[in-house]
Amino acid sequence: MTDTLNKHHPHSPNGADDVSRNTSGNLDFDAILRARMSRRTLLKGSFAAATSSLFGIGLAGCNDSGGGGGAAVLALGFLAVAKHTDDVLTVPDGYTATVLYRLGDPVDGSVADYANDGSDSADSHAHRAGDHHDGMHWFGLNTAGTAPDSTNSRRGLLCMNHENITQIFLHTVAEVGAGLSTASRVAAQIDKEVNCHGVSVIEVVRDGGPFQVNKGSAYNRRLTAASLMDISGPARGSDLLKTKFSTGGTQTRGTLNNCANGYTPRGTYVTCEENWAGYFKRPASSTLGAKEAAAQTRYIGSGSNNGSYGWANPTGGDTSGTDLYSRWDITPGASADADYRNAANTMGWVVEVDPYSPASVPRKRTALGRFGHEGAMPAQAVSGKPLVYYMGDDARGEYIYKYVSNQNWDPADAATGGLVIGDKYLDDGRLYVARFDADGTGAWIELDIGNASIAAYAGYDFADQADVLINCRFAADAVGATPMDRPEWTGVHPDTGDIYVTLTNNSDRGKTGTTTGGQSRGLDAANPRYYDEDGSKGNVNGHIIRIREASGDHAATAFYWDVYLFGAEEDTTGGSSVNVSALTDDNDFSSPDGLWFSQKTPGLMWLQTDDGAYTDVTNCMMLAALPGSQGDGGAVAIANLAVPSNGGADQTVTTFAGKAAASDNLRRFLVGPKGCEITGITETPDGKAIFVNIQHPGENTSAANIGDPASYESNWPGTADVDRPRSSTVVITRDDGGVVGV
Ligand code: FEO
Ligand code: CA
Ligand code: CA
Predict the structure, then answer these.
(1) 602-272-544 Cα angle (round to 5)
(2) Per-residue confidence at 17, pLDDT binned at 50, 70, 90?
């Protein structure tokens, strides 16, 4: 189902997270660059001095440590894994990867082992692992399994997201052969697909042998795209959230397309709704009122559509009596409280889940804004300071956001825990969007209805602050945020406080005109690269931007930035303007997505890829990194050849690149099986086991070949030429029992 242009993000059937609907015209580069260049030198020395002088803590030894991070003794403790295109998962010598939790595996004792031939019932899937495992976090339990314990490495809860499905592997050969037309779906097939989305909470225990799922645990739970959810925060009760299901706009059913994640210092999980937009059946936006049309076009698309999987279209109509299917149809009917015109407004949020309270109803935290939420990773919680979350909106030309709580963190709240404490920090705060300036500085701009640019924005007439949060992409457009090359995961370095954001790729970057739903985007300092080796593809390899908050305060509204790493093929024909970070055979990668800092080993960063540009040479991978700090490199001029948005002329863009990579600070740790992406990682508190998700192996298999397992792109983790592939969680440990990675 993947179109060729969007090949680099194959997991979404419509390439939905690769769609640009940002037509705001914000930025672009040239004017900013000229203005800044004229009054500010870009020389490395002065720039580094200017930034480092603002940070008095955590920097000793960083800027000259050769990329080794603040802890000088930290070193990668494994040999690089070779790239490959085989249907196997490879890890370094001295390490073992064990499959723990596969699509369809029972989460409790009520269902049988997974048949994995499409015959398992729809209802049974509410008690099985979902599909497309993604973001994940470990929550410790005590030895008896009766209470939270953040120090125990042998028993804990894994919370993980199930982002999407590989549809053909969920149904029988006959069902797939009959076609899976979005115009008319067997209701039970829809139910199964709905149940394969959402979140798993599973207890895992290690008692002498490898980790296993404790199917008898009272904590085990599945949330699906049908589970009851509360709507919380400033937009709760908004007219724009009222539906026939919840006429008060306070609840909805389902969490959807849960991609990356986050967590709170209160022992709760946050799961982030990314590509929800494509699931809804919709009319052409031209049939709607002006505001509704603008919002649908900006968030979902202007054309009519049955939705990615046709969930609104059960054969024979919706006879559920509870609108189980018609809730996916946002076509306006009689009134907002008698139809589901606002159902899509109840998706696109950060959702807080309490893993220790299996009966609790998750809360959608509207204060953090509504967009294509990739993830929401926190800065370190500091007593007496706000809680701060960094978030990417993953679509072409979308933005980077941060949330700052109004209440300061009180460590006593960690003991209380739960969603009620969450109300204090996640329902009351300020939402900001990032603008990256060409001189290496930037600004966080608050998205508040009191901002005249927002209140008077010509592109959308905001009713109130709830509307600003529900349609915050418009608010970000209004204040001149910088459109980025698809912001994915964020991570905060525990020592330096630097914020890292993966920008996975952007097929629009540097292009004129529209492509498949896209809007042209010129090059700018923060998105400086276009490369045409395989055709006109924009920024195909992606990069990782790095932010340092001014004055070392995560609540700051000014920052400094550089590009920590540029993805590239080590033997690219584009030379150093493409392989800017000097990647080698040990560490070259393309399309960074997952990014996560170990908490056990501060300074150790994991990097995961979701790529389609380098897949002729290698399957997707995970690397270990020891990043330095913002400003550890300098200004570089990137020579882009034949840039369409520049009339086909070459264009040189000056940016700020981090220190070049080397095998001692960036090294490939894992390569996955065919057709997968690597996404989601967590660790036990002792760092001696990491959990990694292998998403959608074999997803490029054609529906026409469903009857011939030997022809599948992948059979992992099952038997070659026999089994259907399954998204899976693997546990990776060192054979000598040591800490992973170092
Ligand atoms: Fe679900 Fe943006 O990756
Ligand atoms: Ca992702
Ligand atoms: Ca991705």
Answers:
(1) 50
(2) low
Residue 378 · residue 599 · CB < 8 Å: no
Report the distance separating Cα 671 and Cα 614, nearest Å: 13
The pLDDT-based confidence of 377 (bands split at 50, 70, 90) is: very high
| Residue 380 neighbours by CB under 8 Å, 6+ apart | 492, 494, 497
**CB 230 less than 6 A from any atom of ligand 1:** no
Look at residue 14 and tell me whether its pLDDT is greater than 60. no
How remote is the CA of residue 608 from the centroid of ligand 2, in Å?
9
**Residue 163 near ligand 1, beta carbon < 6 Å:** yes
Query: Do the beta carbons of residue 567 and residue 529 sit within 8 Å?
Result: no
Is the shortest distance between the CB of 256 and ligand 1 below 6 Å?
A: no
Angle CA 481–482–483, to nearest 5 = 115
Alpha helices in 265-382 (DSSP H): 290-299
Mean pLDDT estimate for the chain:
91
Min mean pLDDT across 29-33, 549-553, 579-583 is at 29-33
3-class SS letters over 375-441: EEEECCCCCCCEEEEEEEECCEEECEEEEEEEEECCCHHHHHCHHHHHHHHHCCEEEEEEEECCCCE
374 lines ligand 1 (CB under 6 A): yes
SS3 state of residue 406: strand
Tell whether omega for the bond before 735 is within 30 degrees of 0, i.e. cis.
no
Backbone angles phi, psi at 422, to 5 degrees: -60, -35
Any atom of ligand 1 within 6 Å of the Cβ of 437: no
Residue 488 CA: nearest ligand 1 atom is 2
Asked if residue 17 has its Cβ within 6 Å of ligand 1, the reply is: yes
Q: Which ligand is nearest to the CA of 10?
A: 3
269 DSSP β-pair partners = 263, 353
Q: How far is the CA of 274 from the centre of ligand 2 (A)?
A: 9
Please work out, in degrees rounded to the nearest 5, the angle formed at the alpha carbon of residue 20 by the alpha carbons of 451 and 701: 145
Neighbour count for residue 727 (Cβ, 10 Å): 34
Ligand 3 centroid distance, CA of 34 (Å)? 33
> Phi and psi at residue 522, in whole multiples of 5°?
-75, 175
Rg of the chain over CA atoms, in angstroms? 24
Q: Which amino acid does the sequence have at 288? A: L
For the CA of 542, the nearest ligand:
3
Block residue for tokens 């037309």? 181
- Structural tokens at position 29: 């580069």
Ligand 1 centre to CA of 17 (Å) is 7
- Per-residue tokens: 656: 């700020």
What's residue 18's pLDDT?
Answer: 60
Q: Is 259 in the pocket of ligand 1 (CB under 6 A)?
A: yes
Ligand 1 atom showing the smallest separation from residue 372 Cα: 2
Ligand 1, atom nearest to 394 Cα = 2
Q: Are 210 and 343 in contact (CB under 8 A)?
A: no
* Ligand 1 atom 1: residue of nearest CA: 259
Task: With residue 183 as reference, give the H or E element that holds it.
Answer: none
Question: Residue 10: its pLDDT value, please?
Answer: 35
What is the pLDDT, as a whole number, of residue 56? 29
What integer is the mean pLDDT of 528-555?
90
Sheet-wide strand order for 258-263: 251-253, 228-232, 363-365, 350-353, 269-273, 258-263
Q: Which residues surround ligand 3, an ion (CB under 5 A)?
A: 593, 610
DSSP 548-588: EEGGG-TT-SEEEEEEEEE-B-TT-TTGGGTSTT---TTT-
Q: Is 723 in the pocket of ligand 1 (CB under 6 A)?
A: no
pTM beyond 0.85, yes or no: yes
Rounded CA gap, 361 and 352, in Å?
Answer: 9
Pairing of strands 649-657, 666-671: unpaired
Query: Is the CB of 488 inside a 6 Å radius of any atom of ligand 1?
Result: yes
Q: How far is ligand 1, taken at its centre, from the CA of residue 717, in Å?
A: 22
Of 19-23, 191-195, 198-202, least confident by mean pLDDT is: 19-23
